[in-house]
Write a structure and sequence with these properties.
alpha/beta, 10 helices, about 25% strand, Ribosomal Protein S5, domain 2, nine-stranded mixed β-sheet, about 450 residues, elongated
């Protein structure tokens, strides 16, 4: 009986029973191709387990085999949960030019300086190019080995011969197996490369870091099973024109997934930022209209962020320009603020200082107060932080982590705060802070802009 045909997306591996012009999984055009599905027959029969590899009582398993070893880069260890575990496979994904190779080169260098052997496989650059970068970021070491190779078989042979203590592959989409059809980076090739490397890492207990490319929408390129095969999936993010880089754990079998590592990308490499809040504040001591502070939670880390807004008369169609903020939330807040003052015929510009991207609702109140301050032309109270979510009715809602946010604001020298009503229940307030609880946006504006009246809206 003939096999039923199916259609496979060459970009993400999604299968469908009929041909489609656009893949419903990754939304790419022209990537769905006809293929013959593999026959699903059970060939493997049960075998008696060897004496040395049978089931073991959980109380007799040596937990030291899964203990993390520090990479001596604090922010990298923070996200991984303490360091790299022997045999663990980490997938590091990020946009081109964000600094993935630079970060991993420094990780390899620090590991090699502790007496370990590190194998850095580069499929995108030559060994000479990697050396030039290593000299620039001071990542030279005698036990850091480079291999500019794209053949999977040769890479596996090098691993068997060298037996490294750390393996870095940059990137998984550049390696290819001669035994598998398809171009490097295709679904079949990525699946085979990942499976072979993971098998070698587990067999030799080698901590391994794979660099992965991302698609236009920010997801990891290749089959979705790649993220399921590895132990840790990290996303390296950052604006091209900003020095800040953030490392997030999307999946982590050895630690939390709500940690965020911060790095400063300088000419000499990546530097860990244990206290990055200063990057998101203006250095001017003068109070400017349209500026308000807030505290955002990135994972479990609170960060003090400054939001700035500018409102001007529109010359033609009103513009809404946003940088570092969610445009949809700004449109909602402008609609709520429009009940109090006229903004529909104005140009509105809103941005965060330092290129920080903020999307959580806890920053709604700070954005609304910055818009109100820009509308009146009067600055807010000095050293004021605003924390709260705004509903469509103008009510200010409570947000989680209030105690942590207020402690971070007080540590940065903030003395005034405006929060939602009821936010201080069972929450310790720092002695140096005066906190006002407000029920709605109108009350918060009156509190933060005393003796100031918003321009009334028409009608």
């Amino acid at each position: 009986m003939a096999s039923t045909m199916q259609y496979l997306c060459s970009a993400c591996g999604h299968t469908t029973a009929k041909w489609l012009g656009r893949c419903p999984q990754c939304h790419e055009w022209g990537t769905v191709e006809e293929t013959v599905p593999a026959r699903r027959t059970v060939r493997t029969q049960a075998k008696p387990a060897p004496d040395d590899s049978g089931a073991t009582p959980i109380t007799e398993v040596d937990r030291r085999l899964a203990e993390a070893r520090s990479t001596h880069i604090p922010e990298f260890d923070r996200v991984l949960g303490g360091g790299l575990v022997p045999g663990a496979v980490v997938l590091l994904a990020g946009e081109p030019g964000v600094g993935k190779s630079t970060l991993l080169l420094e990780v390899g260098s620090w590991t090699a300086r502790q007496g370990a052997r590190v194998l850095y496989v580069t499929g995108e650059e030559s060994a000479a190019q990697v050396r030039l970068r290593a000299e620039r970021v001071d990542a030279m070491s005698e036990t850091l080995y480079l291999s500019a190779e794209t053949d999977l078989g040769i890479v596996l042979g090098t691993i068997d011969q060298l037996q490294p203590d750390l393996l870095i592959i940059d990137s998984v989409q550049t390696l290819a197996s001669a035994d598998v059809d398809g171009a490097p980076g295709g679904v079949a090739q990525v699946r085979e490369v990942a499976a072979a490397v993971i098998r070698a890492a587990k067999d030799h207990a080698i901590p391994t870091v794979l660099v992965g490319h991302v698609t236009k929408d920010g997801s990891v390129a290749g089959p979705r099973t790649l993220e399921h095969l590895v132990d840790v999936v990290c996303s390296f993010e950052g604006e091209r024109h900003s020095r800040l880089r953030m490392l997030r754990a999307v999946k982590n079998r050895y630690g939390p997934t709500d940690e965020v590592g911060c790095f400063d990308m300088t000419e000499s490499g990546m530097e860990s930022l244990p206290d990055p809040s200063g990057l998101f504040l203006t250095r001017s001591a003068t109070r400017a209209p349209g500026s308000c502070l807030t505290v955002a939670l990135e994972g479990r880390r609170p960060m003090l962020i400054e939001v700035q807004s500018l409102i001007d008369d529109a010359h033609g169609h009103p513009r809404r320009t946003v940088s570092g903020l969610d445009a949809n939330r700004i449109a909602m807040i402008l609609a709520v603020l429009g009940r109090l003052t006229k903004t529909a015929d104005k140009d509105v510009f809103s941005a965060t200082v330092g290129g920080m991207r903020v999307s959580e609702p806890a920053c709604d109140l700070a954005l609304a107060l910055s818009l109100a301050s820009a509308r009146t032309g009067e600055p807010l109270y000095s050293r004021l932080v605003a924390i709260g979510e705004i509903s469509l009715s103008g009510e200010i809602r409570q947000v989680p982590g209030m105690g942590q946010r207020l402690s971070e604001a007080a540590r940065q020298g903030i003395t005034n705060a405006v929060v939602a009503g009821g936010s201080l229940d069972n929450v310790p307030v720092p002695d140096s802070m005066r906190v006002a609880e407000c029920e709605d946006l109108a009350e918060a504006i009156a509190m933060a802009l005393p003796d100031t009246t918003l321009p009334a809206r028409d009608g």
